[in-house]
Specification:
Helices cover 17% and strands 40% of the residues. By secondary structure, the chain is an alpha+beta fold.
């Protein structure tokens, strides 16, 4: 995996109860391809491969109606827990505390002071 620069937008995600519609629309519009990601048990998640990319750029999370539909971006950070703590001090609301998947990716979701939903993530150390 090519590691992005810290504090840059490096991932996007759709949470949807209509994953086939989302995948069909963006697949047709941008020629995106999808690969089932099995790193998080109990979650159906498809990684998005954009044309010419060597690695996924985003994902489609199948919500099964468990939460409202959304589209968000994720910022690559050095330390998710420290970033969440700093964001809280700046007035952000934690929507999902830091969690790690079986591949070692750690991520969290927040709401900024204007009410926008966004995420932060980091990768396991090499």
């Amino acid at each position: 995996m090519t590691v992005p620069a810290f504090n840059s937008v490096a991932w996007f995600e759709f949470g949807t109860d209509q994953p086939e519609k989302v995948k069909e629309f963006y697949g047709e519009l941008f020629d995106w391809q999808y690969v089932l990601n099995t790193n998080t048990p109990g979650v159906t998640y498809h990684s998005v491969m954009t044309p010419g990319a060597q690695q996924p750029a985003g994902g489609v999370w199948e919500s099964e109606g468990g939460f409202p539909n959304y589209a968000i971006f994720y910022v690559f950070v050095q330390d998710v827990a420290a970033t969440v703590e700093r964001a809280e001090k700046l007035g952000a609301e934690v929507l999902m505390a830091p969690v790690s998947d079986s591949a070692g990716f750690t991520f969290a979701r927040l709401k900024d002071t204007a009410g926008h939903h966004f995420g932060v993530f980091c990768v396991p150390a090499p």
